[in-house]
Amino acid sequence: MGSINQVKQYFHSSLVALSLGAIALSPVSAAAETFGSTTDTLLRGSVGGSFPGEFYGGSLSGGFPVVLTEAEARSSVLGAPDDRFLSLPGEPGVSGTAFTGAYIEVGFGSNFSANNILKIWETGDSAESAQLFLWTDNGGNIQPTVTTNAAGVITLDLSGYAGILAGLGATAFTKVGIGGLDVLGASQGFDLDAISISPIPEPSTYALLLAGIAVLGWNVRRNKLS
Hints:
six-stranded antiparallel β-sheet, alpha+beta, single chain, 32% strand, 4 helices, globular, 28% helix
């Protein structure tokens, strides 16, 4: 009889622990990753690349660089990463002067706060750089520079810009502008495939996750001792 009760207690404790873990994990895994759904300003720029004066990009599996129509250029950066990219040639400019590289603005259907992770997928060569323009709801912008690595995914924690956002008198971001800062690679320039935002989990989420792990660990230890 005792062994049956022990089994029941074991499964009950395990169920509680797993439930806590599932509750804790669900906000993290379910935290919506929103990919770019709209484009705004699109500029070829005045810096030459593979096809000066043309939009170009392509697909690693389907051929590149190839000339793109404006519609193809816009659609290639929307949605999840799909190997279709827009190349953005450019070069670092002089501070205070207009940006001269190829440039595109991507939106997500609504404004978003600094409590988000921004991800940018760059296809092709590593060490390609871009100038970001984080546009705010009062018309200002923040301009960090990013460089891709071998993984091809740039991750930027926007919470680091919360103070600057408030200092500009803004409350949210509206869109992300991406401008190329080099002419590297076979398809010269920053090869933009996709961009997304996802909420940073609240601290309470992590606390609940740790509680679930602690209960599970306690349950395993108790059954080893019994």
